[in-house]
Amino acid sequence: MTAANAADPDDGPGGAGGGAPPPAAPAGGRAAGDDIVAGVVRQWYAVRPDVDTGPMEIIGRINRCAALLQQAEDAPLRHAGLNRAEFDVLGTLRRTGHELTPGELARETFSSGAAVTKRLKQLGERGLVERRADTRDRRVVLVRLTDAGRALVDALLPEQLSYEAAVLSGVEAGRRDDLARLLGELLVQLEGRLGLPRG
Amino acid sequence: MTAANAADPDDGPGGAGGGAPPPAAPAGGRAAGDDIVAGVVRQWYAVRPDVDTGPMEIIGRINRCAALLQQAEDAPLRHAGLNRAEFDVLGTLRRTGHELTPGELARETFSSGAAVTKRLKQLGERGLVERRADTRDRRVVLVRLTDAGRALVDALLPEQLSYEAAVLSGVEAGRRDDLARLLGELLVQLEGRLGLPRG
DNA sequence: GCCATATCTTTTACGAGTGAAACACCTGTT
DNA sequence: AACAGGTGTTTCACTCGTAAAAGATATGGC
């Protein structure tokens, strides 16, 4: 609540927060080479020029990208009857190389324990993962990939990645590296700011 | 389907697609200053060094950022009893400045018509939007903000934006601009590649 | 040894989104 | 005028995720 009210609406046009005003303005319409968010920002500037829309240019774009990607990105997975979340569980087990508990899987895949339980049930019924009780602590369940699960991940991973590579291929290689680096910086900050409550 | 299989798994280690292998490798563990995705990439490199994890560094990070943001970003909204999606509808009506149909709202907010119908029902019950039938074409419904709805958006928008600004403040200003620009480039590509089917 | 407390997993109740079907209406053709 | 086909909105059945409660087990103080 502290800094949240820092940018009052009567900040005054021109000195709005720190972001430069959007370039010119095709009357709120959309210019060639612009993405959706640029148009949105211009519309806001037309009706509320006092407000600093800077954050939208990052957060809005991340949300749009994530939405677009999630709608289409999973084509190779869907083909195998999996969704992103299920593949995420399988992939986590594969890349760590050892058994994990449902709690660890939940933390690793950013979802609730309940969601993991559901997914494990389905993946178990399909013979892709196995559960066994921990001998030391019988509250704990240990989950591992079956041979079939491992084979499926290994087959799907390159397909999925090359599909993703195709999706990204419209951006020049050097800029992809820049983008990855900057997203990494942002993610570190977000983890610190928003992820701490879990520690 | 065309270019999607371009990067075959037997691309050969060292020449994997275009991404450099992850730096050294703390045994799959996590180094200081690294984000979660960097650790994930290293784990993959340890068990499947033949695979080009480049796309993960962008898509994985975007997904993580979006997940983290969505969990916490909405603090000021939640305080007003709204969620992101509802605020998105109100904001769209506010920034365009005129009445919109449910279909237009669906396209604008990236969601299904059914979802928009539900939201409009709730927002209508709370007195934030009004529907009226189009006089020309009676299939069409026109939605507009009530005075209360407009006042709520105008009050919430600066709060929400300065909250978002605080979340982003850990990244240096110049880098935020770079990030916004690169995300814009990516978004243009994604819109072209993944958004075309709707046209 | 026993109890209070904490931790891990699963179950339950519910909210939100989606695709497909249903419904209402328009428009051009015959 | 009637009809076929198209478009816009809503309803329906379903999936998926979550928070909170329940169930099972460990652990430390007495």
Major sheet summary line of chain A: 2 strands, antiparallel
Shape of chain A: elongated
Number of separate helices of chain A: 8
| CATH C-level label of the largest domain in chain A | Mainly Alpha
Measured between the Cα atoms of the first and last residue of chain A, the distance is 21 Å
Return the structural class of chain A: mainly alpha
Radius of gyration of chain A: 22 Å
Number of strands of chain A: 2
Write out the CATH superfamily name of the largest domain in chain A: Winged helix-like DNA-binding domain superfamily/Winged helix DNA-binding domain
CATH architecture tag of the largest domain in chain A: Orthogonal Bundle
**Element pattern of chain A in H and E:** HHHHHHEEHH
Question: How many independent structural domains of chain A?
Answer: 2
Provide a descriptive summary of the structure in words.
Two copies of one chain form a homodimer. Chain A is mainly alpha-helical. The first copy, chain A, has helices spanning 36-47, 54-72, 75-79, 84-96, 102-109, 113-125, 147-168, 173-194, and strands spanning 129-133, 141-145. Chain A has two domains: 11-72, no CATH class; 75-163, Arc Repressor Mutant, subunit A, CATH 1.10.10. In chain A, helix 1 packs antiparallel against helix 2, helix 4 packs across helix 7 (147-168) and helix 5 packs across helix 6. A two-stranded antiparallel sheet of chain A has the order 1-2. Chain A is built from eight helices and two strands. Chains A and B meet through helix 1, helix 2, helix 4, helix 7 and helix 8 of A and helix 1, helix 2, helix 4, helix 7 and helix 8 of B. The first copy, chain A, binds a DNA duplex (30 and 30 nucleotides) through helix 6.
